[in-house]
Amino acid sequence: MSAAADFLRDRLGGRKPKVAMVLGSGLGGLVADMEDAVRIPFAEVPNFPASRVTGHAGEVIAGRLGGREVMVISGRVHYYETGDPAAMRPVIEAIHALGIGHLLLTNSAGAVRADLAPGSVMMMTDHIAFSGLNPLIGEDTDQRFVGMTAAYDAGLRSAMVGTAEGLGEPLAQGVYMWFSGPSFETPAEIRMARILGADAVGMSTVPETILARFFGLKVVAASVITNLGAGMTGGELSHTETKEMAPKGGARLGRIIRAMLEKGVFDG
Residue 29 needs a FRET pair 20 to 30 A away by CA distance; which of 38, 46, 67, 108 works? Predict the structure, then answer.
Protein backbone atom coordinates (compact mmCIF):
# COMPACT_ATOMS: atom_id res chain seq x y z
CA MET A 1 0.00 0.00 0.00
CA SER A 2 1.44 3.40 -0.95
CA ALA A 3 2.09 6.05 1.70
CA ALA A 4 0.13 8.51 -0.44
CA ALA A 5 -2.93 6.24 -0.45
CA ASP A 6 -2.74 5.78 3.33
CA PHE A 7 -2.53 9.55 3.80
CA LEU A 8 -5.43 10.24 1.43
CA ARG A 9 -7.60 7.53 3.00
CA ASP A 10 -7.23 9.24 6.36
CA ARG A 11 -8.15 12.60 4.87
CA LEU A 12 -11.13 11.33 2.83
CA GLY A 13 -13.26 10.89 5.92
CA GLY A 14 -14.90 7.65 4.80
CA ARG A 15 -15.54 8.74 1.21
CA LYS A 16 -15.20 5.91 -1.30
CA PRO A 17 -15.12 7.36 -4.82
CA LYS A 18 -15.36 4.98 -7.76
CA VAL A 19 -13.93 7.40 -10.30
CA ALA A 20 -10.96 9.74 -10.29
CA MET A 21 -10.66 12.60 -12.73
CA VAL A 22 -7.53 14.41 -13.84
CA LEU A 23 -8.74 17.84 -14.88
CA GLY A 24 -6.79 20.02 -17.28
CA SER A 25 -7.23 23.72 -17.95
CA GLY A 26 -10.77 25.08 -18.24
CA LEU A 27 -12.56 22.59 -16.01
CA GLY A 28 -12.44 24.50 -12.75
CA GLY A 29 -16.24 24.82 -12.86
CA LEU A 30 -16.59 21.15 -11.96
CA VAL A 31 -14.49 21.65 -8.85
CA ALA A 32 -16.54 24.70 -7.88
CA ASP A 33 -19.73 22.62 -8.11
CA MET A 34 -18.49 19.82 -5.84
CA GLU A 35 -20.38 19.40 -2.58
CA ASP A 36 -18.88 18.65 0.83
CA ALA A 37 -15.42 18.92 -0.72
CA VAL A 38 -12.12 18.20 0.98
CA ARG A 39 -9.12 19.89 -0.66
CA ILE A 40 -5.62 18.47 -0.23
CA PRO A 41 -2.63 20.21 -1.85
CA PHE A 42 -0.15 17.94 -3.65
CA ALA A 43 2.54 19.34 -1.36
CA GLU A 44 0.91 17.64 1.65
CA VAL A 45 0.63 14.18 0.10
CA PRO A 46 3.68 11.91 0.53
CA ASN A 47 5.59 11.39 -2.73
CA PHE A 48 3.19 13.45 -4.85
CA PRO A 49 4.85 15.66 -7.48
CA ALA A 50 4.50 19.46 -7.57
CA SER A 51 3.17 21.20 -10.68
CA ARG A 52 4.89 24.36 -11.83
CA VAL A 53 2.57 25.34 -14.69
CA THR A 54 0.28 28.38 -14.45
CA GLY A 55 -3.35 27.29 -14.57
CA HIS A 56 -2.66 23.92 -12.89
CA ALA A 57 -3.58 23.96 -9.21
CA GLY A 58 -1.92 20.76 -8.05
CA GLU A 59 -4.41 19.51 -5.48
CA VAL A 60 -6.67 16.56 -4.71
CA ILE A 61 -10.35 17.35 -4.16
CA ALA A 62 -12.78 14.72 -2.89
CA GLY A 63 -16.51 15.31 -2.68
CA ARG A 64 -19.84 14.79 -4.39
CA LEU A 65 -20.58 15.76 -7.98
CA GLY A 66 -23.61 14.71 -9.98
CA GLY A 67 -24.81 12.79 -6.94
CA ARG A 68 -21.69 10.60 -6.86
CA GLU A 69 -18.52 10.50 -4.77
CA VAL A 70 -15.56 11.53 -6.91
CA MET A 71 -11.89 12.29 -6.55
CA VAL A 72 -10.50 15.10 -8.67
CA ILE A 73 -6.84 15.64 -9.46
CA SER A 74 -6.81 19.34 -10.25
CA GLY A 75 -3.58 19.98 -12.08
CA ARG A 76 -1.08 17.43 -13.30
CA VAL A 77 2.68 17.25 -13.64
CA HIS A 78 3.94 17.04 -17.22
CA TYR A 79 7.02 15.34 -18.62
CA TYR A 80 8.36 18.71 -19.74
CA GLU A 81 8.46 19.95 -16.13
CA THR A 82 10.57 17.13 -14.75
CA GLY A 83 12.08 15.15 -17.61
CA ASP A 84 10.38 12.12 -16.04
CA PRO A 85 7.55 10.46 -18.02
CA ALA A 86 6.55 8.63 -14.81
CA ALA A 87 6.09 11.85 -12.80
CA MET A 88 2.40 11.05 -12.28
CA ARG A 89 3.00 7.46 -11.18
CA PRO A 90 2.58 8.18 -7.43
CA VAL A 91 -0.79 9.78 -8.20
CA ILE A 92 -2.09 6.96 -10.40
CA GLU A 93 -0.75 4.34 -7.99
CA ALA A 94 -2.56 6.01 -5.09
CA ILE A 95 -5.82 6.10 -7.07
CA HIS A 96 -5.50 2.36 -7.67
CA ALA A 97 -4.56 1.62 -4.04
CA LEU A 98 -7.68 3.45 -2.86
CA GLY A 99 -9.82 0.95 -4.79
CA ILE A 100 -10.89 3.39 -7.52
CA GLY A 101 -11.46 1.53 -10.76
CA HIS A 102 -12.15 4.29 -13.29
CA LEU A 103 -10.00 7.18 -14.47
CA LEU A 104 -11.29 10.08 -16.55
CA LEU A 105 -8.54 12.17 -18.13
CA THR A 106 -8.89 15.60 -19.73
CA ASN A 107 -6.44 17.88 -21.47
CA SER A 108 -6.08 20.93 -23.64
CA ALA A 109 -5.00 20.16 -27.19
CA GLY A 110 -4.27 21.70 -30.55
CA ALA A 111 -6.34 20.55 -33.53
CA VAL A 112 -4.75 18.90 -36.54
CA ARG A 113 -8.10 18.77 -38.36
CA ALA A 114 -9.51 22.06 -39.60
CA ASP A 115 -13.05 21.08 -38.53
CA LEU A 116 -12.02 20.89 -34.86
CA ALA A 117 -12.57 24.52 -33.95
CA PRO A 118 -11.19 26.09 -30.77
CA GLY A 119 -13.71 25.55 -27.98
CA SER A 120 -14.81 22.12 -29.25
CA VAL A 121 -14.37 18.81 -27.43
CA MET A 122 -12.79 15.62 -28.80
CA MET A 123 -13.11 12.24 -27.09
CA MET A 124 -9.88 10.28 -27.46
CA THR A 125 -10.35 6.97 -29.24
CA ASP A 126 -6.63 6.17 -29.28
CA HIS A 127 -3.25 7.83 -28.98
CA ILE A 128 0.19 8.01 -30.56
CA ALA A 129 3.12 8.30 -28.14
CA PHE A 130 5.23 10.24 -30.61
CA SER A 131 7.65 11.40 -27.90
CA GLY A 132 9.02 7.86 -27.76
CA LEU A 133 8.97 8.04 -23.97
CA ASN A 134 7.25 5.57 -21.66
CA PRO A 135 6.52 5.85 -17.92
CA LEU A 136 7.14 2.12 -17.44
CA ILE A 137 10.79 2.24 -18.47
CA GLY A 138 12.72 0.90 -15.48
CA GLU A 139 9.83 -1.24 -14.17
CA ASP A 140 11.48 -4.58 -13.43
CA THR A 141 8.49 -6.92 -13.57
CA ASP A 142 6.75 -8.50 -16.55
CA GLN A 143 3.77 -6.27 -15.77
CA ARG A 144 5.58 -3.59 -17.77
CA PHE A 145 4.44 -5.28 -20.99
CA VAL A 146 1.02 -3.67 -20.87
CA GLY A 147 -1.38 -4.29 -23.74
CA MET A 148 -2.64 -1.03 -25.23
CA THR A 149 -5.03 -2.34 -27.89
CA ALA A 150 -7.97 -1.09 -25.83
CA ALA A 151 -6.27 1.73 -23.92
CA TYR A 152 -9.51 3.73 -23.83
CA ASP A 153 -12.37 1.60 -22.55
CA ALA A 154 -15.02 0.89 -25.20
CA GLY A 155 -17.89 0.89 -22.70
CA LEU A 156 -16.91 4.24 -21.19
CA ARG A 157 -16.41 5.74 -24.65
CA SER A 158 -19.86 4.57 -25.71
CA ALA A 159 -21.34 6.07 -22.56
CA MET A 160 -19.63 9.40 -23.20
CA VAL A 161 -20.92 9.51 -26.77
CA GLY A 162 -24.45 8.60 -25.69
CA THR A 163 -24.40 11.15 -22.90
CA ALA A 164 -23.24 13.93 -25.23
CA GLU A 165 -25.93 13.05 -27.75
CA GLY A 166 -28.57 13.13 -25.02
CA LEU A 167 -27.45 16.61 -24.02
CA GLY A 168 -27.20 17.85 -27.59
CA GLU A 169 -23.52 18.60 -27.01
CA PRO A 170 -21.26 18.15 -30.06
CA LEU A 171 -18.53 15.59 -29.34
CA ALA A 172 -15.85 14.85 -31.90
CA GLN A 173 -13.79 11.67 -31.76
CA GLY A 174 -10.18 11.19 -32.72
CA VAL A 175 -6.58 10.22 -32.07
CA TYR A 176 -4.35 12.29 -29.79
CA MET A 177 -0.61 12.52 -30.45
CA TRP A 178 1.68 13.14 -27.50
CA PHE A 179 4.59 15.51 -28.03
CA SER A 180 6.98 16.07 -25.13
CA GLY A 181 6.76 19.89 -25.10
CA PRO A 182 7.17 22.47 -23.71
CA SER A 183 7.76 24.15 -27.08
CA PHE A 184 4.81 24.00 -29.44
CA GLU A 185 4.92 21.93 -32.60
CA THR A 186 6.23 23.27 -35.91
CA PRO A 187 4.04 23.46 -39.03
CA ALA A 188 6.00 20.52 -40.45
CA GLU A 189 5.29 18.46 -37.33
CA ILE A 190 1.59 19.25 -37.60
CA ARG A 191 1.60 18.10 -41.24
CA MET A 192 3.40 14.92 -40.14
CA ALA A 193 0.87 14.33 -37.36
CA ARG A 194 -1.95 14.58 -39.88
CA ILE A 195 -0.26 12.08 -42.20
CA LEU A 196 0.28 9.65 -39.31
CA GLY A 197 -3.40 9.72 -38.37
CA ALA A 198 -3.56 12.19 -35.49
CA ASP A 199 -6.52 14.50 -35.02
CA ALA A 200 -5.13 16.55 -32.12
CA VAL A 201 -1.77 17.11 -30.44
CA GLY A 202 -0.80 17.82 -26.86
CA MET A 203 1.75 17.46 -24.07
CA SER A 204 0.05 15.20 -21.51
CA THR A 205 -2.41 12.36 -20.82
CA VAL A 206 -0.62 9.52 -22.64
CA PRO A 207 1.77 8.71 -19.75
CA GLU A 208 -1.21 8.72 -17.37
CA THR A 209 -3.14 6.36 -19.63
CA ILE A 210 -0.20 3.94 -19.80
CA LEU A 211 0.20 4.05 -16.02
CA ALA A 212 -3.53 3.59 -15.48
CA ARG A 213 -3.60 0.52 -17.70
CA PHE A 214 -0.54 -0.82 -15.86
CA PHE A 215 -2.54 -0.59 -12.62
CA GLY A 216 -5.68 -2.05 -14.20
CA LEU A 217 -7.83 1.08 -14.30
CA LYS A 218 -10.47 1.65 -16.98
CA VAL A 219 -9.73 4.88 -18.83
CA VAL A 220 -11.79 7.41 -20.77
CA ALA A 221 -10.28 10.67 -21.99
CA ALA A 222 -11.24 13.87 -23.78
CA SER A 223 -9.45 16.91 -25.17
CA VAL A 224 -10.63 20.49 -25.07
CA ILE A 225 -9.47 22.04 -28.34
CA THR A 226 -7.86 25.41 -27.62
CA ASN A 227 -6.24 26.22 -30.97
CA LEU A 228 -5.53 25.04 -34.49
CA GLY A 229 -2.08 23.54 -34.96
CA ALA A 230 0.98 25.48 -36.06
CA GLY A 231 0.81 26.66 -39.66
CA MET A 232 -2.96 26.25 -39.93
CA THR A 233 -3.82 29.90 -39.25
CA GLY A 234 -0.66 31.86 -39.94
CA GLY A 235 -0.45 33.03 -36.32
CA GLU A 236 1.93 31.99 -33.54
CA LEU A 237 0.79 29.70 -30.70
CA SER A 238 0.97 30.64 -27.03
CA HIS A 239 0.11 29.27 -23.59
CA THR A 240 -1.97 32.42 -23.05
CA GLU A 241 -4.23 31.35 -25.91
CA THR A 242 -4.60 27.93 -24.31
CA LYS A 243 -5.67 29.44 -20.99
CA GLU A 244 -8.11 31.83 -22.68
CA MET A 245 -9.84 29.23 -24.86
CA ALA A 246 -9.87 26.28 -22.43
CA PRO A 247 -12.88 27.50 -20.38
CA LYS A 248 -15.13 27.54 -23.47
CA GLY A 249 -14.61 23.89 -24.33
CA GLY A 250 -14.22 23.08 -20.65
CA ALA A 251 -17.79 24.17 -19.97
CA ARG A 252 -19.04 21.80 -22.70
CA LEU A 253 -16.97 18.90 -21.44
CA GLY A 254 -17.99 19.67 -17.87
CA ARG A 255 -21.66 19.28 -18.75
CA ILE A 256 -20.95 15.89 -20.32
CA ILE A 257 -18.93 14.69 -17.33
CA ARG A 258 -21.57 15.81 -14.83
CA ALA A 259 -24.30 14.03 -16.80
CA MET A 260 -22.20 10.84 -16.97
CA LEU A 261 -21.93 10.92 -13.19
CA GLU A 262 -25.66 11.51 -12.78
CA LYS A 263 -26.35 8.49 -15.02
CA GLY A 264 -24.10 6.29 -12.87
CA VAL A 265 -21.69 5.49 -15.70
CA PHE A 266 -18.85 4.84 -13.26
CA ASP A 267 -20.84 2.95 -10.63
CA GLY A 268 -20.03 -0.52 -11.91
Answer: 46
